[in-house]
Specification:
The structure holds two protein chains of two kinds.
Chain A: E1 2-11, E2 14-24, E3 29-33, H1 40-47, E4 55-60, E5 63-64, H2 69-75, E6 76-79, H3 91-101, H4 106-119, H5 135-148, E7 153-157, H6 165-180, E8 184-189, H7 192-198, E9 201-206, E10 209-215, H8 223-230
Parallel strand pairs in A: 3-8, 3-9, 6-7, 7-8
Antiparallel strand pairs in A: 1-2, 1-4, 4-5, 9-10
Helix pairs in contact in A: 3-4, 3-5, 4-5
Chain B: H1 2-19, H2 29-38, H3 43-57, H4 67-72, H5 77-86, H6 92-105, H7 111-140, H8 150-160, H9 164-182, H10 188-203, H11 214-223, H12 228-247, H13 252-272, H14 288-307, H15 313-328
Helix pairs in contact in B: 1-5, 3-7, 6-7, 8-12, 9-10, 10-13, 10-14, 12-13, 12-15, 13-14, 13-15
Classes of the chains: A alpha/beta, B mainly alpha.
């Protein structure tokens, strides 16, 4: 469902993603993990048509990401890194906007919106302007927009961050159900323990290069240990002044 | 006192950085072209611009600090009051008022005029705390129009009413409409001219149609399964609706022709050089050259439609259509 071959993105001299090759089968949940600045969001942007790759090729749902970008947009749902919300529209209006451009009827949009807002515990804020929403509400709105048009492939950039535990559980359950129904999910996250519970494939990326790519069953030990071993170990800075009598 | 000074310093930096956004007026088509063509006879228009900019300029500087952050800082009551008294002096309008008071004492300025200016300042200072709620109430009343692009058009209409360009155009429109009703013998040329002045007031906005969308809005535009021309059309529809409403009682055909040309020329800057804009400021023209072409096209189209034939609207619409198609491909 998602296929990349030597996908590369350069910003001048800086190589954000370096010859990335991977295959994600239909119905799988691929967790794309790495530290900040590793190239995760850049990869998502290339796969969703937000930026063009410098070289290499990629297909999503059998369509070329450069040549067929409009057609791809009709088949995917995206939760972008910056959420992609308009400050001057309310939560409800964002969902109606999505329904309109994906050519859903108003009744269908209303029906689906109500269900999504209930599922994501966002009913109380449906008439709030995005500029007035908390980060969590904004994230839920963007997620609802991604799901509303019933996409074949979902790209979610850090869907579980800044989300309350109950909604996080709802989202993970939802992703598992979607995957069982054949929807492909490609997500980035920093919450390794949560990802380990529902991802079917794990790709670790470090400085734009794939450091690990396997099914979750093939991960030796815990995902956290693998991440610390291959990608980045926690810093061991001793902040001696913290907790001392010095203010 | 160290804490107060630290906060004052932070507020001073934030205020001075924010003041830069007021300089947007310097590159606004309306000011540039009225100053060039009208010079001293345009005093009333400059006063109008000054009055409009006076409101956001008078905002409370302490609002630069998020309320939650201010509440979390370990400031005692005395320190808070010192801050409350000193922060207004970070606003240049306060110094202007102090100078105006001195002028009034020395009879350079009348006490009545000082009272009006001070009243406006206090009103703006207090209103800056309420403006969010006022805007929200106004924004909720913006209607949605039918079709695929309805929510985008609504979003764009709301963005437009957050610019001082819109309020300037509204004042010109309302003022001229009242004049038309009051004086039935007024010459039609005046309304032709005022229709074009209204479009001139909005022309800089037509150069930065995506300026208020921010990075998130632009991301969403790129993710929506829409053609570039559809996105541009949603922007333009809001602009045309506003111009039509504002020129309806004056000379709507002139307004329409001029607006089509202003948009057709402005697309280049709107699409190729997206310049972020600040709410409640005048729009910044992205390019003086583009502004010159816009204003020339605006006056030629406006005069042409009224003086020669309404059929001139057809080439205007054709040029506009080509521009939407061409620059839509580049979005």
């Amino acid at each position: 469902m998602i296929s990349c071959r030597d996908l590369t993105c350069r910003y001048g001299e800086f190589v954000a993603v370096d010859r990335l090759s991977l295959e994600v089968a239909a119905g799988s949940i691929c967790a794309f993990l790495g530290p900040n600045g590793a190239g995760k969001s850049t990869t998502v942007k290339m796969l969703t048509g937000l930026i063009a790759p410098t070289s290499g090729s990629a297909t999503v749902a059998g369509l070329d990401v450069v040549r067929d970008s409009l057609e791809i947009k009709r088949r995917i749902g995206v939760l972008p890194e910056n959420l992609g919300l308009f400050d001057d529209l309310t939560v409800d209006e964002h969902l109606y906007l999505t329904g309109d451009v994906y050519k859903l009827s108003r009744a269908e949009t209303k029906d689906r919106s109500n269900q999504l807002l209930r599922a994501l515990h966002l009913e109380h804020g449906r008439h709030t302007f995005a500029s007035r929403c908390s980060h969590g509400m904004r994230k839920k709105t963007a997620l609802a927009m991604a799901l509303l048009a019933n996409p074949k492939v979902l790209f979610l950039d850090e869907p579980l961050e800044a989300i309350d535990p109950v909604t996080a559980k709802t989202i993970t359950d939802l992703l598992i159900t979607l995957s069982q129904r054949g929807v492909t999910v490609f997500l980035t996250s920093h919450i390794l323990a949560a990802v380990e519970q529902f991802a079917t494939r794990v790709v670790l990326i470090k400085k734009g290069v794939v450091a690990w790519n396997s099914t979750i069953a093939e991960v030796p030990g815990s995902l956290e240990k693998l991440y610390f071993d291959l990608v980045e170990a926690p810093a061991a800075e001793d902040l001696a002044w913290l907790g001392s009598s010095q203010s | 006192m160290v804490r107060v000074l630290a906060v004052l310093n932070a507020v001073r930096r934030a205020v001075w950085r924010g003041q830069g956004s007021f300089l947007s007026i310097g590159t606004n088509n309306f000011l540039i072209f009225t100053a060039y063509f009208l010079r001293q006879t345009g005093t009333f228009l400059y006063l109008l611009l000054a009055l409009l900019i006076f409101f956001p300029l008078s905002a409370d500087p302490l609002r630069k600090v998020p309320a939650e952050r201010l509440a979390l800082w370990p400031l005692d009551r005395r320190e808070w009051w010192i801050l409350r008294i000193l922060t207004p002096w970070l606003n240049p309008i306060t110094w202007f008022l102090a100078a105006a008071t001195a002028w009034a004492v020395h009879h350079v300025m009348t006490w009545q005029l000082l009272g009006i200016v001070a009243g406006l300042f206090v009103l703006s200072f207090v209103l800056s705390d309420l403006s969010g709620g006022v805007w929200e109430g106004l924004a909720r009343r913006v209607p949605a129009f039918g079709g695929l692009l309805r929510e985008l058009i609504r979003n764009n209409l709301r963005q437009m009413i957050c610019t001082l360009d819109f309020w300037l155009a509204l004042i010109l429109s309302v003022g001229t409409t009242i004049y038309r009703i009051a004086d039935r013998t007024a010459p039609p040329e005046a309304f032709l001219m005022m229709s074009m002045m209204i479009i001139l007031a909005l022309s800089s906005y037509a150069q930065c149609l995506f300026g208020l969308d921010g990075a998130a809005g632009l991301t969403r535009y790129r993710l929506l399964p829409l053609h570039g021309w559809q996105i541009l059309l949603a922007k333009d529809a809001a602009f045309l609706l506003v111009t039509l409403a504002l020129t309806l009682a004056l000379n709507p055909l002139t307004g329409l022709a001029a607006a089509l040309m202003v948009l057709a020329v402005g697309h280049e800057q709107s699409v190729k050089h997206i310049k972020p804009q600040v709410r409640w400021r005048f729009s910044t023209s992205a390019s003086l050259g583009n502004g010159v072409v816009q204003v020339t096209a605006l006056f030629i189209a406006g005069y042409g439609v009224t003086r020669t034939s309404v059929l001139l609207l057809i080439p205007c619409a054709a040029i506009y259509g080509i521009s939407v198609w061409w620059f839509g491909r580049r979005l």
